[in-house]
């Protein structure tokens, strides 16, 4: 939710109250070009910094993030509508992401290649090294304005790249705060530039400029597809969302899974790429599971995200809440039943649980990105596995079972970037490889893996 003020200003709004909390300047095409030029100039010197010096900057940034935890969390809660407790968690994760990046700066390495495995390579020494790629164009989403920025910026800086970042127009303040923290930590001017504005203007100017060597983007498959067509011969990493599902088998500790499923569905108002959107629960435990689930949902506190006990705040905009509400109504008209929630007040959609759904309903087959979860019962594990796998997305999925053959069968069957056993798809730690298959993306994040994506291999062959 943003509103224009002066011709080149954007008002950043508190997503719960609707009041303006700051104004930021909208970047012109000339601003974008100058930012890329500054990043290029910074790269020329920053790429030559020794690893220990880059690591020191990232370690200092991690410490400052921790020291300013509550200040940053308040900004997150207001500009993103994220509940206070989840805003604190995001700051903590970002601090850890920068710490991982500081360590990775010192661990980046190549390896030797046994050239004499080929008769043509006898007598030669071969090895490769990793070198920074150049200017990285980073486009980040609104739902994690700090940690998803960290996942693009920190690995890039760790390996000696410079970055031009376009944060989401609805949530630019946290990115600006992070830039200030990095500068205070010793990052040279130009190594992280920020441009602000719409995707069709600022984003397009950034992506189509020939000077950035890589584009890293988190957002929708539609926009991601467009970027791949616009970017030209650049490296690309895409994280494009999910339609997260979990299977609850009767042999599992399904009672303890209830609260985890509730959190996984409704944290950050369901606006997480790996939010839980689809629950498949076995017939034999469906009634008690659903009863406990609905009771837990009824205890969620909905309201102002800056309240310390808030569980579910507003969505990013009223228009998004209206869209999600329409999906619920469409499902009901097609025969589904609302088991909890379904009402909307402005940008706040109540935590909504839907039963009696069909696979072709939007609430099942599309990414809702809303506080909305469906529950489907099943009799046969293979049938549930087939339903879970039947999606155009492939980021992460979860299975609750104590049966090792079933767990291994799920790992084999599911074409997802992550298969989480005895947890929901929302599980992520910031150093694991993270990314999806099919329309969920290209490449992997997670500090080490992003750092590798953001380097070039240089093969060296020495003939004595």
Helix-strand blueprint:
Blueprint: E1 2-4, E2 9-13, E3 20-25, H1 29-46, H2 51-67, H3 69-80, H4 84-107, E4 111-113, E5 125-132, E6 135-139, H5 147-158, E7 162-166, H6 173-184, E8 192-194, H7 199-208, E9 214-218, H8 221-231, E10 235-239, E11 244-248, H9 254-266, E12 276-282, H10 283-298, H11 318-333, E13 337-340, E14 344-345, E15 348-349, E16 352-355, H12 362-365, E17 372-378, H13 381-389, E18 396-400, H14 404-413, E19 418-421, E20 441-442, H15 447-453, E21 455-462
Parallel strand pairs: 6-7, 6-9, 7-8, 9-10, 11-12, 11-18, 12-17, 16-17, 18-19
Antiparallel strand pairs: 1-2, 2-3, 4-5, 5-21, 10-20, 13-16, 14-15
């Amino acid at each position: 939710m943003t509103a224009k003020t002066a011709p080149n200003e954007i008002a950043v709004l508190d997503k719960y109250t609707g009041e303006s909390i700051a104004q930021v300047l909208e970047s012109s095409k000339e601003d974008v070009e100058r930012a890329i030029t500054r990043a290029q100039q910074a790269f020329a010197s920053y790429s030559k910094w020794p690893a220990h010096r880059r690591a020191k900057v990232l370690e200092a940034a991690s410490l400052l993030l921790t020291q300013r935890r509550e200040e940053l969390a308040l900004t997150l809660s207001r500009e993103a509508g994220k509940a206070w407790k989840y805003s604190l968690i995001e700051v903590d994760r970002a601090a850890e992401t920068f710490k991982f990046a500081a360590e990775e700066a010192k661990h980046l390495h190549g390896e030797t290649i046994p050239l004499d495995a080929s008769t043509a390579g006898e007598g030669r020494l071969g090895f490769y090294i990793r070198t920074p790629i150049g200017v990285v164009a980073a486009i980040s989403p609104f739902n994690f304005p700090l940690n998803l920025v960290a996942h693009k910026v920190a690995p890039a800086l760790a390996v000696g790249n410079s970055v031009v970042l376009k944060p989401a127009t609805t949530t630019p303040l946290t990115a600006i705060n992070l830039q200030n923290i990095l500068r205070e930590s010793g990052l040279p001017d130009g190594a992280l530039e920020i441009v602000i504005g719409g995707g069709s203007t600022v984003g397009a100017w950034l992506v189509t400029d020939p000077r950035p060597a890589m584009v890293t983007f988190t957002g929708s498959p539609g926009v991601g597809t467009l970027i791949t067509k616009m970017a030209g011969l650049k490296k690309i990493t895409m994280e494009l969302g999910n339609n997260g599902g979990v299977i609850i088998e009767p042999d599992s500790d399904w009672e303890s899974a209830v609260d985890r499923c509730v959190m996984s569905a409704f944290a950050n108002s369901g606006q997480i790429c790996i939010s839980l959107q689809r629950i498949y629960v076995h017939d034999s435990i469906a009634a008690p599971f659903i009863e406990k689930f609905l009771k837990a949902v009824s205890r969620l506190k909905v309201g102002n995200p800056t309240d310390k006990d808030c569980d579910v705040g507003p969505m990013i905009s009223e228009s998004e809440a209206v869209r999600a509400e329409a999906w619920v109504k469409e499902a009901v008209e097609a025969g589904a039943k609302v088991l909890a929630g379904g009402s909307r007040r402005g940008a706040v959609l109540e935590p909504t649980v839907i039963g009696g759904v069909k696979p072709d309903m939007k609430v099942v087959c599309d990414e809702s990105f809303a506080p909305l979860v469906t529950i489907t019962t099943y009799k046969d594990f293979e049938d549930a596995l087939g339903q879970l796998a039947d999606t155009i997305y492939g980021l992460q999925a979860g299975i609750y079972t104590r049966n090792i053959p079933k767990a291994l069968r799920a790992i084999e069957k599911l074409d997802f970037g992550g298969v989480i056993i005895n947890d929901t798809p929302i599980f992520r730690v910031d150093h694991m490889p993270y990314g999806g298959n099919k329309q969920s993306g290209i490449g992997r994040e997670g500090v080490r893996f992003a750092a590798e994506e953001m380097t070039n291999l240089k093969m060296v062959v020495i003939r004595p």
